[in-house]
Structure formats: structure tokens, C-alpha cells
Amino acid sequence: MKNLSPEFCKSVKSARREAGLTQGQLAAEVGCKQSALSMFEQGDGTKLNDEVIEKLAKKFNLSLSPSASPAKVNTLPLPHSSTPPLLRGFCPNPHCPTNKEYFVEEIRLFLPDRETADPVGGKYCAMCGELLERKCPNCGAAIHAGAICSLCGQPYVVIAE
Ligand SMILES: [Zn+2]
Ligand SMILES: [Zn+2]
């Protein structure tokens, strides 16, 4: 697409992360290659065709032309079929049995067991009743299966010494 701003490409990236989608998942959903989406997210607006870009704009409710008429895109109804997959939370309580203690070079870490803490996609930990976290408590990035946020490098579960 011509005259597509790099800001739009970046906003697709952050919207995708907030939705908890991988590039592969989103590419399959809008019908493009993961490699093309990757280059697009890095700011190369020519990598995807107009149809795919419009799908992305609609899905994440993003404006394609901030200088022209930003309201135009938002008037279209959002498809209900594109709800993001259920993201299981983790328990931020370091004393909860769902958090498995381990050590890396004498640094105490906890690996959250998201299946045990959040078996049904609820609001509270199934083991200890603590309010579950669905985002990195430090930077707000979408969580993944590991113990440490891949975006900011902070452990998800921290214990006060
Ligand atoms: Zn818990
Ligand atoms: Zn983080």
C-alpha cells in the first residue's frame, strides 16, 4: 500500500502483542505469510497487499490514514469471529504452589504453572485465591509460558527477600 505510515506498521505489532497473537497466528488469520508480516511490522508497508492491510486495520481498530479521515475505518463493524485465544493467567504469589521455585546461578526464580493456577480462565488463582495476572506486571507485555518476560527481562513472580 502506498503512503502507509511506519507508525501504522508499528501499531499493528503492538496491537498483535496485546492480543496475545504470534506473527504466525495473525498471518494465518488475515491470509498472508508470516515473513511478510514480520517485515511489515518492521515498517515496510509494501510487504502486504491492500486487502490484508485493511483486515489488520479492521481487526485491531486502527486508522489507516491518520492525516485524512481516521473515523472512516472505525465505522465498520468488528467481526465477532476474531476474538483472541484465551490467555491463561499466572499467580503472582511467590508462596503459591503453582509457582515452581528454581535457581539460576543462585538467583531465585519461579516458573508459573499457568494450567494449575488458571484451569478455566478465571480471575483468581485456583490454588491460593490470589488475583491472576495476564500481563507482565512490570511492562504490560503479553505473558508466555516461561518465567521471565521476554520484553523487559523481569521475572513474572518476584519474592521480597
Ligand atoms: Zn496462587
Ligand atoms: Zn515485561
Q: Strands of the largest sheet, in order across it? A: 1-2
Query: Helix-strand pattern, N to C?
Result: HHHHHEEH
Broad structural category: alpha+beta
Overall tally of structural domains: 2
Ligand list: zinc ion
Largest sheet: 2 strands, antiparallel
Radius of gyration from the CA trace? 19 Å
Strand portion: 5-15%
Counted beta strands: 2
Distance between the termini: 53 Å
Low-pLDDT residue intervals, each spanning 5 or more residues: 68-72
Structure described in brief:
The protein is an alpha+beta fold and 161 residues long. 30% of the residues lie in helices and 7% in strands. One zinc ion (ZN) is lined by residues 136, 138-139, 141, 149, 151-152, 154.
Could you walk me through the main structural features you see in this protein, from its secondary elements to its overall organization?
With 161 residues, this protein is of the alpha+beta class. The protein has 6 helices and 2 strands. Strands 1-2 form a two-stranded antiparallel sheet. Residues 68-72 have low confidence and may be disordered. The structure holds zinc ion (ZN) (2 copies). One zinc ion binds next to loops. Residues 91, 93, 96, 98, 117, 125, 127-128, 130 line the site of one zinc ion.
Keywords:
binds zinc ion, elongated, 434 Repressor (Amino-terminal Domain), about 30% helix, alpha+beta, about 160 residues, 2 domains
Topology, element by element:
Elements (H helix, E strand, L loop, with lengths): L5 H13 L4 H8 L3 H8 L8 H11 L10 H4 L24 E6 L2 E6 L1 H4 L44
Antiparallel strand pairs: 1-2
The structure holds zinc ion (2 copies).
One zinc ion binds next to loops.
